[in-house]
Design brief:
It is a single chain. By secondary structure, the protein is an alpha/beta fold. The chain contains 20 helices and 9 strands. About 50% of the residues lie in helices and about 5% in strands. Strand 2, helix 9 and strand 3 form a beta-alpha-beta unit.
Length: about 475
């Protein structure tokens, strides 16, 4: 029997009727605010070319590692889902067959954030009113596929439809940013007003263990005209690329290091370390020390150019060696690790942590660090702000834990609102809706406990939804 798909208007609000009523009122005041998405991994080509999305599988399955990692965990190979290998080649599979496979296994997502985001999109974007399963797979495919063929479902139209004020994508320093140039020209000509900016992600040229590191440094030198075989030339090349990114709208950098370790070596020691790193065989210890030194160097550069630093540490990337060898990075095989922020960040903070103008946003996959380390650090150092619940914790309970464990020490105003950090375009409005509901529920409990007045809660709700993110990312 076909089951109805219905999104309850009170979803995610507290069960207590008195608190729920307060949450409803707060949510009504922020539900329709514009979306600011200051950090994510959507493809800028979508907005540059404005080409239709190819089919439902290409829109919902292929770009979303949350989706295919769950399917893979149940023994469904990535080839069967049409996921391209590291050379960009994918098995010849019918996208309708991929969709049927996804639909037949949709029950795997019960209770997960992915299920909540996807149901929101199915109901609100495509007006589907039955649940996705094997029996409704073709109905879903036909409705979505037909919609994707219309101008109303092209990327720019969807961007405008969901009141997205800004999206920041994330690019390698070796990227030419051609797609961002096209979008900027569309803005200048009046063709389209959507704002799409980039963020500077230097990992390929600051992590000695990143694949192709030596070739990446050579390419960096070619692009900047600097000698990246010596320490001063290497730093000059990075400054040049940061300036290039800033000229294309970037207001932030992003650093996906394995740990939060930082270092503050003397110039001669840093140069000697760089010589060892580019000398061929680099030890794990030198690789970690070099990454640590580069976080401090990036902070110094941020003092000069004003770019906000984002540090996303604590992921054991590409844990599945076979998947990495065949399909490359970002294929759902990254696993959280414990992270030491207090000792790790101290060299950087000793060097520049009290400098006015420096802004660093910290993220974590280690929730045990919230109350013990991150909230006390952000509650003291003016340069530090707490990024929202990230990745595995971008979920209702993850958001609740974040607020519960950080607010009493760091307050609301040492956090930066919400960012979705997604590759799946249509999950953006769904994720922001979840964040708004959870924050309003948390604030409603403070009001019900007489710890906050309702007018203060309404102001905080608006700040968490819209104002703080623009301030933190200098937008």
């Amino acid at each position: 029997m076909t089951k109805l798909l219905a999104l309850h208007p009170d979803r995610l609000f507290p069960a207590d009727p008195r608190v729920r009523d307060i949450a409803r009122i707060l949510y009504s005041q922020v539900a329709d605010l514009p979306i600011v998405s200051p950090h994510g991994h959507t493809d800028p080509a979508w907005f540059a070319t404005n080409s239709p999305f190819a089919n439902p599988a290409a829109l919902f399955v292929e770009p979303d590692h949350y989706v295919y990692r769950m399917l893979y965990s149940q023994g469904i190979g990535l080839d069967r889902l049409g996921i391209a290998d590291r050379e960009g080649r994918s098995a010849e599979v019918d996208p309708r067959d991929v969709w049927r496979l996804f639909a037949a296994n949709y029950h795997l997502f019960r209770g997960t954030p992915s299920r909540m985001w996807l149901d929101w999109v199915f109901a609100n974007v495509f007006a589907l009113d039955v649940r996705l399963d094997a029996a409704t797979a073709d109905r879903y495919y036909d409705v979505i596929d037909a919609a994707l063929g219309t101008d109303a479902f092209r990327p720019r139209a969807l961007f405008d439809r969901y009141r997205i004020e800004l999206i920041a994508t994330t690019e390698s320093p070796l990227d030419t940013l051609d797609h961002h140039r096209v979008v900027a020209e569309a803005n200048r000509s009046g063709e389209w007003a959507g704002r799409v900016i980039t963020a500077f992600r230097p990992d390929p040229v600051v992590d000695p263990e990143f694949e192709g590191f030596a070739d990446n440094l050579a390419r960096l030198g070619e692009m900047t005209g600097e000698d990246t075989a010596n320490w001063p030339g290497y730093l000059a090349a990075l400054r040049a690329r940061r300036a290039f990114f800033a000229s294309h709208g970037a207001t932030s950098t992003d650093h996906g290091h394995p740990s939060a370790a930082t270092a503050n070596l003397a110039p001669a020691a840093a140069a000697a370390l760089f010589a060892r790193v580019i000398g061929g065989s680099v030890s794990p210890g030198d690789a970690e020390l070099f990454r640590a030194q580069m976080l401090t160097e990036m902070a110094r550069m941020s003092l000069d150019d004003g770019l906000v630093m984002q540090i996303h540490p604590g992921s054991f990337r590409n844990h599945n060696a076979q998947i990495f060898a065949r399909y490359g990075r970002d294929k759902g095989a990254d696993i959280p690790m414990p992270t030491d922020y207090v000792r790790g960040l101290k060299p950087l903070l000793d060097a520049v942590g009290n400098e006015p103008g420096l802004s660093i946003i910290l993220f974590t996959l280690d929730e045990t660090s919230y109350a013990r380390e991150l909230a006390p650090l952000a509650g003291h150092y003016p340069c530090l702000k707490l990024g929202p619940s990230w990745w595995f914790h971008d979920s209702p309970e993850g958001m609740r834990r974040f607020r519960q464990m950080t607010t009493e020490t760091a307050g609301f105003y040492n956090s930066v609102g919400f960012n979705d950090d997604t590759r799946a375009f249509l999950s953006i409005p769904a994720r922001h809706d979840v964040a708004r509901r959870m924050d309003c529920g948390f604030l409603a409990e403070l009001v019900a406990d007489h710890r906050l007045s309702e007018d203060e809660a309404a102001e905080v709700a608006r700040d968490l939804t819209y104002n703080l993110v623009k301030q933190a990312y200098r937008l």
